[in-house]
Specification:
elongated; 180 residues; Methionyl-tRNA Fmet Formyltransferase, Chain A, domain 2; alpha+beta; five-stranded antiparallel beta sheet; 2 helices; two-stranded antiparallel ribbon
Length: 180
């Protein structure tokens, strides 16, 4: 969490996982608003462009490969539904937004539960709220839905507010309810 780039490699298979010689490495930037879906799109675009270059080299009969540097492999754990649970009462806005971005489509989305019911909200996109604020918001608990329209929901966090822009459950009837 919190990285700003990922490296995308095109390599020839070797005897071990990710150990073969490299044809191309592209650094894909992770912008503050990128979701996993956007990052996958960037990777797909890189695959298309790299494949075209690889085919050109193949046609010329010269595919330049570079040995990978020796060093430890980095393996990240698979994202689980538990990793995608948001706790508005504990997490700062930046952490909430990072979880939403990492859990967005094509994954199952980030989730939050209402304190007063078993109802779960799935969140696919959200942004840091940067707009007018009410003095009354200071006295409500974290996770309180401060405002909602047909497709936007404003929620109080420990250090500000997040605007949920794509969720499974929204609406004015949710104003004042609290997410855990």
């Amino acid at each position: 969490m919190g990285g700003d780039a990922v490296f995308h490699n095109c390599f020839r298979y070797g005897s071990g996982a990710d150990e073969g010689p490299v044809f191309n490495t592209t650094q894909l930037s992770i912008d503050s608003r990128d979701t996993i879906r956007i990052l996958q799109y960037k990777a797909l675009m890189d695959i298309k462009l790299t494949t075209a270059r690889l085919l050109d080299c193949y046609r010329r009969g010269d595919i330049p490969l570079t040995d990978q540097p020796r060093g430890p492999s980095v393996w990240l754990p698979k994202l689980t539904p538990k990793d995608s649970e948001i706790q508005f009462g504990v997490m700062p806005a930046e952490q909430i937004l990072s979880i939403v971005r990492a859990s967005s489509r094509p994954f199952d989305g980030a989730t939050a539960r209402f304190v007063d019911a078993e109802l779960q909200v799935t969140i696919w996109d959200a942004i840091q709220y940067q707009g007018p604020r009410s003095e009354e918001w200071k006295s409500v608990p974290y996770g309180t839905i401060l405002d909602a329209t047909a497709d936007l929901t404003l929620v109080k966090t420990r250090d500000g507010e997040v605007l949920l822009t794509d969720t499974s459950t929204v609406g004015e009837a949710m104003i004042g309810r609290q997410l855990s």
